[in-house]
Write a structure and sequence with these properties.
heterodimer, A: mainly alpha, 2 domains, 0% strand, B: OB fold (Dihydrolipoamide Acetyltransferase, E2P), five-stranded antiparallel β-sheet, three-stranded antiparallel β-sheet, 10 strands
């Protein structure tokens, strides 16, 4: 990925994360005061996002963009299926987001409910979409192999 | 170029022997003409010429404007370009997998479909080859999908 693409990718991820946090702020406006106690992201009490939090989200966006660039690079993973690359990218993004959460105090590391919410919100969506993609490509691969076997049998008979 | 024809009542099939100092373009053309009526391809390795049967070819690819022919355990080189080989090889047994590769269909061990429309082939030799989106459509048509 060249520099221009990397900057565009980071900008996209950063914009999406801002939209997501803003939406979260909007929905949980009434509870923002309590959230302020536990999360740096909501330190302005639903009035917006602090400069510190903007910087933290930008750091995470750069990390995600770099991971995306790494996993989608044909230089390192030429013979890896795209499905596997996406899976590994999401796992690495999951860990990167978890580490950022602890480092930047997005929620207290000792609060199990917050971790559960983090895992569920990240995990359920990706698990469902990946299960669908995995089953679809597996069925497609089987169909390819069946058709190839039939094709070879047909031509073997023709050769005899 | 001198041409000698030897008649031999005991010959089971026509046989061509080329005597030369090196493989020039003229010699290459002659060899191609000689092999064109048979299912064979003339290739080179370590300065020696070999004749391969088409069914023995697992795949052919190009790198740095050179064309390599892969069989079980051996890699040879041919002077022919990929588009020439594509025309020469039987369409029922070979197909173009991407811009730089022709694959022997009978030597495909497994196929994995990817979510981006490409296919990852594992060949009998264990080598992994990609079928690009562009050529995957032709491959699907060929095997009746």
């Amino acid at each position: 990925m060249d520099n221009k693409k990397m900057i565009t990718s980071t900008a996209e991820i950063f914009t999406l994360s801002l939209l997501f946090v803003s939406l979260f702020n909007l929905v949980l406006g009434g509870e923002a005061k309590e959230l302020r106690q536990v999360s740096e992201l909501f330190s302005l009490c639903g009035e917006g996002i602090s400069f510190a939090a903007l910087g933290e989200l930008l750091v995470l966006s750069v990390i995600i963009s770099a991971l995306r660039s790494l996993w989608f690079s044909d230089r390192f993973f030429k013979n890896m299926l795209m499905l596997n690359r996406i899976t590994l990218m999401l796992v690495s993004v999951f860990f990167a987001a978890g580490i950022c959460s602890v480092l930047f105090g997005w929620f207290p590391p000792s609060m199990w409910q917050a971790w559960l919410g983090f895992v569920l919100s990240f995990g359920i969506g990706t698990a469902v979409s990946f299960a669908v993609m995995f089953l679809r490509t597996r069925a497609e691969s089987r169909k390819y192999e069946c058709n190839l076997t039939a094709y070879n049998d047909l031509h073997d008979k023709g050769d005899e | 170029m001198k041409i000698h024809i030897l008649y031999d009542d005991n010959a089971e099939e026509p046989e061509v022997t080329v005597v030369c100092r090196e493989i020039t373009d003229e010699v290459s053309r002659l060899l191609r003409a000689a092999e064109s009526r048979e299912d064979r391809l003339t290739v080179m390795k370590d300065g020696q010429i070999f004749i391969l049967r088409y069914p023995d070819i697992i795949y052919i690819d190009t790198a740095d404007k050179r064309t390599f022919v892969y069989t079980s355990g051996e890699v040879y080189e041919t002077g022919q370009r990929l588009y020439e080989l594509e025309r020469q090889l039987p369409a029922a047994d070979f197909f173009r997998a991407n811009k730089s590769c022709i694959v022997g269909i009978r030597h495909i061990r497994s196929i994995k479909a990817d979510i981006d429309g490409r296919l990852l082939l594992t060949m009998d030799s264990g080598d992994k080859l990609w079928v690009s989106r562009q050529y995957a459509a032709d491959f699907r048509k060929k095997i009746g999908m």
